[in-house]
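Lecture notes, part 5. Sequence design as translation. It can be helpful to think of inverse folding as translation between two languages: the language of shapes and the language of residues. The source text, in structure tokens, appears below.
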């Protein structure tokens, strides 16, 4: 099992159990079968081809990829781990060239990579258009309920004071609002101009160059800013008593975990991955991320524990 390390980051969830009869080989696993696939298959029926699994330079992506890897190994597939490859510009050409067979992706950002002018914003629209946009030789499996995307975040106190649940509720606020985010966020579609156009909310902008990290959280808690852009699966949200505002109009493009696979991934392997996706929810993703950030556990340990806790039989 080869590892290629280049850095860290996210996670996954989503679908069905169907596979060709007799194709799943789960006999002879070294531990109990957390995926609960039907027995009665020969241990030698799994694909003899190696499945190359990649991940982003992002901790939750690595954890999800490791969950895929361990589940497939339990089904007697041979896995080659190519984790921490980098960002989409680095790994997407490798996937398109067939060098990587399985990758935990995110629907909205992937669609924008392949189709920058997309107008789809909401979950089902994004997934449907992504299915149409995926290049030949690749296919999407089911998207997971698990999400990890940019979102507007406020303190719990601020949300309670103004009765905020959605981004649109910010129109109730009668005091000046300041948004804090990386400097490029000022001119992104979801920045101040997009917020004003989509929801009718006017804000000032303060650059904070830490990707929604500790400096951004401190600015929120100190009242220097009232809004921040923080990933919705970031464990710092719960740890610091923050609230992600709902986005019913899709100012931020939907971003569900979705497995992207090559033709080297057979139907039996795809069924295993879909079952994992279906079992993972947004709360799971936050908890997995927290174990990486707070406990500093390796992805292999986090993945093994999550699989052992699943009752997917």
């Amino acid at each position: 099992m080869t590892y290629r390390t280049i850095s860290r980051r996210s996670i996954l969830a989503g679908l069905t159990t169907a596979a060709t009869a007799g194709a799943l080989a789960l006999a002879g696993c070294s531990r109990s079968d957390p995926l609960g696939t039907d027995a009665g298959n020969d241990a030698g029926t799994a694909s003899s081809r190696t499945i190359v699994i990649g991940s982003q330079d992002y901790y939750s992506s690595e954890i999800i990829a490791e969950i895929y890897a361990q589940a497939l190994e339990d089904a007697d597939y041979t896995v080659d781990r190519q984790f921490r490859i980098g960002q989409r510009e680095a790994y997407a050409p490798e996937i398109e060239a067939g060098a990587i067979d399985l990758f935990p992706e995110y629907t909205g950002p992937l669609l924008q990579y392949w189709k920058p002018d997309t107008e789809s914003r909401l979950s089902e629209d994004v997934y449907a258009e992504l299915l149409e946009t995926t290049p030949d030789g690749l296919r999407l499996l089911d998207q997971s309920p698990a999400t990890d995307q940019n979102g507007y975040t406020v303190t719990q106190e601020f949300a309670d004071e103004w009765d905020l649940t959605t981004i649109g509720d910010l129109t109730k606020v009668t005091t000046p609002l300041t948004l804090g985010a990386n400097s490029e966020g000022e001119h992104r579609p979801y920045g101040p101009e997009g917020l004003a156009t989509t929801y009718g909310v006017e804000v000032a902008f303060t650059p904070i160059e830490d990707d929604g990290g500790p400096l951004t959280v401190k600015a929120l808690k100190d009242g220097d800013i009232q809004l921040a852009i923080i990933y919705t699966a970031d464990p710092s949200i719960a740890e610091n008593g923050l609230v992600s505002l709902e986005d019913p109009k899709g100012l931020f493009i939907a971003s569900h975990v979705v497995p992207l696979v090559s033709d080297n991934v057979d139907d039996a392997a795809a069924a295993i991955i879909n079952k994992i996706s279906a079992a993972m929810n947004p709360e799971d993703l936050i908890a997995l991320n927290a174990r990486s950030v707070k406990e500093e556990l390796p992805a292999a340990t986090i993945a093994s524990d999550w699989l052992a806790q699943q009752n997917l039989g």
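The translated text above is only one of many valid answers, since several sequences can fold into similar shapes. The radius of gyration is 20 Å.
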